[in-house]
Structure formats: structure tokens, C-alpha cells
Amino acid sequence: MSAVNLISAESIKLFSTRSPWWCNLLAMVLPVGFATAAVLSWPTDVPISVTEVQMGYQFGMMLVLVMAALAVTTEYRFGTMRTTFQAVPGRSSALLAKTALVAGVAGLVGLVAALGSLGVASVLHPVSDLGLGTADELRAVLGVAPVFVFSAVIAVAVGLLVRQSAGALALLLVWPMLVEPLVSVIPTVGEHIQQWMPFVAADHFLRGERSMIADPVLSPAMALAYFAAVSVGLLAVALVVARRRDA
């Protein structure tokens, strides 16, 4: 089966249920809503930065993680993954097609959310210069798309490894929201370890000096490369595991 046919089949499975539609819609709406709330609460005579406008990306990212994980775990739950593997005995090609589709959708959602947040802020707070004139501003807005892409890859990998929706979602939501922020409280080595947490690295890529890392080792560009490497490495492990165990 060709790659185009595989992706077409995966798109039918992905969008034949309501949960991906709701997750993607909310992933676009919530960051825009956060930007709206931030601008409305901001002093009208004080400029707001592009980075501050994009702070709501994390809400969208959480929903992208949910959407991507459910794209895998739902198939295991209802047994359609077994049918998929019977149709594509190599398994890896079907799973890569699913990953490519989910990641592509996530990237598009991230781009819409970031541009929507910027547009709303520009209208509601005209005193601010919210153009994309610097590399930091471009990264804060356009960088949301690749962060969503690699976040989706991580979620697919976790879904393949865990296979149960509740467990996968719990891990994907607790890790970036609770575990990574709390790593810094470990005595002596906490702040150093935190720099190498994947979602902290993604945040450093988007926010630069405004991220939670006080003395970064990686540049923003290298932070994105590291985040991408973690996501691809985790997916590679998940593909090996998926090929070796029963569906």
C-alpha cells in the first residue's frame, strides 16, 4: 500500500470520531482566548510583547497531546489496530503514516492558534507593536507549529507504548505540567536537569530569555533540535516495541 493510501486511510480513521475535532478546535480557541484575556487585563498605555501574547500556547499543546494519544489508544481499545496490522503486515509504515498525519494536523493547529492570538492582540491592543520584525518574535509565533508537531509525535509514541487512553493521557498531561516544573526543586542538580526536560526545552525555544531556564546551556534553535531528537527517538523505540508485541 502506498504512502498516500496509508495517510488517506488514517485520515478517515482520525476524523470519523468527534474527539479529534473537539481537541483541535479547542487547541485553536483556547490560546486565542488566553491572548484575549491577557490583552484585556493589560494596561492600555503599556505595550505588550509578542511573547506574552503567545503564552496560551501551552493550553493548545495539552489538547494536541490528547488528540495525538487518542488517535493511537482508541484503535487499541476498539481493536481496529489489529485490523490495520493485518492489512499492513510491516506495521511501521502504517504507524509512520498515522504519525505523519497527526503531526501535520497538529502543526496546522499550532499555526492557526499562534496567528489567531497575534491577530486578536493586535486589534485589541493597538498601542503595541506586534509585528514580526525580529528573530525572537518570529520564533515566538511561527515556532508554535513545530513545537505542536513534535509534541504530537511524542504523544503518538506514548500511546503506542502505553496503549491505554487513561494511562497515556495521565502521563502526557502530568509530565509537562507537574513533573518538569518541579524538577528544579531537586537540591544542587535540579536546575541543570530541568534544562534537559523536553517540554522545558520547547518552551525555551519559543520564549527565549522569558522561559523558566535561568542560565540556558542550549540556544533556542538547539533547544528545538533537542526536542525534535527526543520525540523522534521516543517514536523509534515505540515502533520497535509495537512490532514485537501482539496488537
UniProtKB/TrEMBL annotation:
Top-level taxon: Bacteria
Residues that span the membrane, as ranges: 21-43, 55-74, 95-120, 140-162, 169-189, 221-242
Keywords: Membrane, Transmembrane, Transmembrane helix
Protein name from the UniProt record: ABC-2 type transport system permease protein
Organism for this UniProt entry: Actinoalloteichus caeruleus DSM 43889
